[in-house]
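[job 4471] stage=fold_predict status=RUNNING
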Amino acid sequence: MSIIEVRDLKKVYNGNVVALKGISFDVERGEIFGFLGPNGAGKTTTVHILCTLITPTSGSATVCGFDVVKEPDEVRKRIGFVPQDISVDDDLTARENLELHAKLYHMPKDLRKRRIEEVLELVGLQERADNLVKTFSGGMRRRLEIAEGLLHNPEILFLDEPTIGLDPASRIVIWDQLKEMNKEGVTIFITTHYMDEADRLCDQVAIIDLGEIRAMGKPGELKEEVGGDVLFLVTNDSNKLLEKLLSLPFIKDAVSQDGTLRVTVKSGEKVIPLIFEEARNLGVNIEAVSLSKPTLDDVFVKYTGRSLRDEKIDKVERFKQYMLMKRRRR
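[job 4471] inference complete, writing structure tokens
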């Protein structure tokens, strides 16, 4: 039996705001499962339901064989949760934060002491255990939160956008630590809108957008479904060229995004000269062209018709980073 089973899960807020539109998926024990999608896609709502923080409008979900609505206490005993917003106490040391968290789980004193040392070592914070958290970097704070989530030996660790606002070096450190935890047998459920994170870290991903799961599978298999190479063309008349490209047998797919054509082909090097010839025949000038291999962003485009890397998401991300930095300076 899967460690997480979700069937036709729906969530509606205030009677008319639909966050989830009946999603279904399974997570296998021992895997790293990624929920990939933009802000507002339904990722956090799903995690909050699975962690028994909110109840679904309809549908069902079980975690470790227990119903999240009917048996929430049993679910909570078996999960760890790292929220999107940093919640550790700045005025306590790392060890004191862990002590407080352990007491909330009613851990016996001897076990508490041993587990605190174990998780501090696991996340690489032994040398800073007795320093105030207010002196920590963003990456160290996030690692401390992961330590809190692992303190009571959960079967599943849920992480909601765990590397948001972190620098690339800190993100890689956390990725490596999550992989080590997974090797120890912890199932990991991670939400992210970072494609490289999902590609590098996850055994399986579900692409979610506007409350619906659009695709699900192993990252490599999903990229293979896109097929071939991807060309990006900047032209003086993208609509005119797009119409022509869609009629050509060697073009697998083509979409226009903010004036740039994204064209999927079997062999980019061979097709580029043919596209230039077609553009000349139409009187269209190709101003720039680039070639890339399929990515999870290409998968996202295939199933949603738009890129995950859009300006709206970037603005949300910048605002979140600003708020996180503002909170840390207080």
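[job 4471] summary: Residues 310-323, 325-329 have pLDDT under 50 and may be disordered.
[job 4471] exit 0
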